[in-house]
Amino acid sequence: MAPQLDRFPPIRACIFDMDGLLINSEDMVTQSTNTLLAKYGRPPLTSLIRAQMMGITGSTNGDVFHAWAGLPISREEFAHESREEMQRHFRNCTPLPGAEKLLSVLSQARGASGDRIGLALATGSKSDSYELKMSQLETRRLLGFFQPRRRVLGDDPRVHQGRGKPAPDIYLAALQSLNSAVGPGKKAILPSECLVFEDSVVGVEAGRRAGMRVLWVPHPDLAAEYQPVLKEVLAGRTGMVNIGDEDQRVEVDDGWAESILSLEDFDYEKYGISVPSKP
Fold it and tell me: Distance between CA 156 and CA 35 in Å, rounded?
């Protein structure tokens, strides 16, 4: 069943994940991990294991990875080596195709009411790795589209510890940051008026649990791995991580989420977003 997008509230805000969506940091995680796996005579990450790790903070220290990897060293030793390896790679992160252009256009776009579209960032990255990933000039330019208070990180005090994605908390905190700047006489932005941009399965679930519409822009490997259960992914019902809160679960194939191949494919008109005319 095709989504009937005209039956939804107009979009007033767009909230973006960062890793694997705006920048190629997920590929850096894979490179770093494969380097260490080779060091200890283990095979590179499979597409399935990689898919299960994407979007989950500290995934290389988790049960799924270590049960598969069978490393001859302790988790603590691997975590130390992994952190050092990733720090070297994170300094070389670059924007993904379409990221800067999309943010540039949205920063000038308006919704159906004529008001500017609000922009916020909601990333599971913690401050130290975030700074490394955004250290290059071309990645740091992306931050210019988000006001500082509208950047919510994985260790932000506005998000309770242990409530990362797929919990909805980080997206609700991002929405709160947008509403804190809503002018006098203006109505607060509702979750249903937000469009979340995500690349990970757990991120899609977080956005859906927050009551927001979601656009899934997965890595090709991830898209291929989850194609058989695409409808469940878009509904946030894969059950990858059990966090309870079953009352936040939504219906499959309800039209609140869809998938596109790249940020370059975003259809502004489809979401009722008016973009400035070219000079």
Answer: 31
Would you call 6 a catalytic residue per the annotation?
A: no
In angstroms, the CA 151 to CA 15 distance is 10
The catalytically annotated residue of 6, 19, 63, 155 is 19
**For this structure, is 19 an active site residue?**
yes
pLDDT digits (tens, 9 = 90+) for 136-170: 999 999 999 999 999 999 999 999 888 889 999 99
pLDDT, one tens digit per residue, over 76-134 is: 999 999 989 988 999 999 999 999 999 999 999 999 888 999 999 999 999 999 999 99
Q: Which of 17, 156, 169, 199 is catalytic?
A: 17
Query: For the chain, which residues make up each domain, given as ranges?
Result: 6-24+94-271, 26-90
Specify the fold of 6-24+94-271: Rossmann fold (3.40.50)
140-149, long-range: CB < 8 A, 24+ apart: 141/95, 141/100, 142/22, 142/23, 142/95, 142/99, 142/100, 142/103, 145/103, 145/104, 145/106, 145/107, 145/119, 146/16, 146/119, 146/120, 146/121, 147/181, 149/177, 149/180, 149/181
